[in-house]
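Title: [Solved] Bifunctional NAD(P)H-hydrate repair enzyme 3D structure

Original question kept below for reference.
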Amino acid sequence: MTCEQMRSAEALLIKSGVSEESLMEHAGREIAKVVASFFPRPGKVVGFIGTGHNGGDALVALRYLRQWGWKVAVECAGQEKRLKKLSVQMRKMLGGDGVRTLEQLEERASGALPGPLVLLDGLLGVGASGPLRGPLLELSKKMNQLRLTRGAYTVAMDLPSGIDGNTGSVYHGAVIADYTVTVGAAKVGLLQSSACNHVGRIALVELPELDLSGIASPDVCLNSAQSLVPNVLRRDHEYHKGNAGTVSIVAGSRGMLGAAVLAATGALRAGAGIVRLFVSASIYNQIVGMLPAEVMVVPCTSYEEVYPYPTDSYVVGPGIGVGNQSEQGQFCEFLKNLTKPMVLDADALNRIAAAGEQELLTANVVLTPHPGEMKRLLPETTGYTREQIAKLFCALYPSTLLYKGSKTIITRRHFPICVNATGHAGMASGGQGDVLSGVIGACLARGLSQFEAARLGSWACGRAAELAVSIGGCSEESVLATDVLQHLGRAFEDLRTGGA
Ligand SMILES: NC(=O)C1=CN([C@@H]2O[C@H](COP(=O)(O)OP(=O)(O)OC[C@H]3O[C@@H](n4cnc5c(N)ncnc54)[C@H](OP(=O)(O)O)[C@@H]3O)[C@@H](O)[C@H]2O)[C@@H](O)CC1
Ligand SMILES: [K+]
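Solution (posted by the thread starter after getting help):
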């Protein structure tokens, strides 16, 4: 939604009798909960406060975080008496124990303060207009500097200050957020690739009773936790492995055994009832000892040997290699005969592109290209934005597209562009895509549509990568695809229990 739509929806809510104060209290408290979920160990938190209600959100969040053990500091853009009335009230409720700035907080402490340093960007929200001016520009620069020099993490209230909430344009000196907690609904500018480096991980805080029904469905939306809850309902007590479904995986080749192992384990960890891995007979002896005991492995000498096995979904491609022309031809013939929902990844896409067989990208398919693979499938897209490439793809092919990137896009024809909320730059490493394809395969096998399976897989893998850092002892540098596998369980639980 646009900033203007948000302001009108908020005005309607207030007209209906909901007080602005209760809205701000709700927004600030929920934002504080999101901060605490991303940083389970309390540390120091500094609120950077502008004159509008965006600063009020940050002041409320500070009050809750202090209750939960955080040391809090405040930096206001100018005199506190210039704040809007409600924000003045929230500043008073936060109280003052003499601590005004991060520097004073640190001076007072005897020894280094433990825990993370978190900065709340409450400078500007949906009331922003144009480039950052005056003291706000200075405070934004200070936040970005602390992020670089002190390892601080920045959490933007509603939107990062200095980003146009409607277009995603980035103004000079804009806040670089690691997390953006957006209130009510994701502002459309946050979902544009131009804003990606400033927005970071997006979390949504809903406002109860906010009526968004009069607003036309957007052509871009957030792949949020809230929107995925219906896809992770508890299982019936009578659930059996037939309900969970069978995934058939065609993956791996000499030198790329790990891709098959990761895809198969991903399918298992996402709830598949049966995972059957088809590999070339030449690698069978090597791979069999690398796989979890739960995977059934079938050595094959030709693709025809895959057909007789009953299945609910296929995952084809991880680590199969590009192959020569004749292998590409046989491979494409094989795909033509598969009728169940399928995930095509990695070299499956490169083989299709090399053979010029893009018509294999049917409505049955979820394809998961990274930009390089996409370029091979759609070569005529130099200079296009990611959104334009995704739209062009959907105009040409009826498949579900999961277009990997720092903000992964999930879309298909007549559907909005759905921008994934979760994940971080630590996922830029080999094997992550293999896990993802297995996870989506499992979601398809239990009956989710291609679009829903791709949304769920993308969210869950991204969240698992976050958990590997926040609770698993990893850093962005060290997180591996196997760490993502280890945290998938908690990621699914997070969805069920209302996690961010
Ligand atoms: N929507 C909802 O339901 C809810 C919304 N809530 C929250 O309120 C936020 C919106 O609050 P808001 O309307 O007070 O606007 P906000 O952006 O804080 O400040 C605008 C002021 O900043 C200034 N200014 C503008 N541009 C500037 C620039 N480039 N550079 C420098 N200064 C600039 C200008 O002030 P002036 O300079 O004119 O004095 C302007 O008046 C919203 O994002 C959300 O966080 C929740 O609390 C509850 C539910
Ligand atoms: K902000």
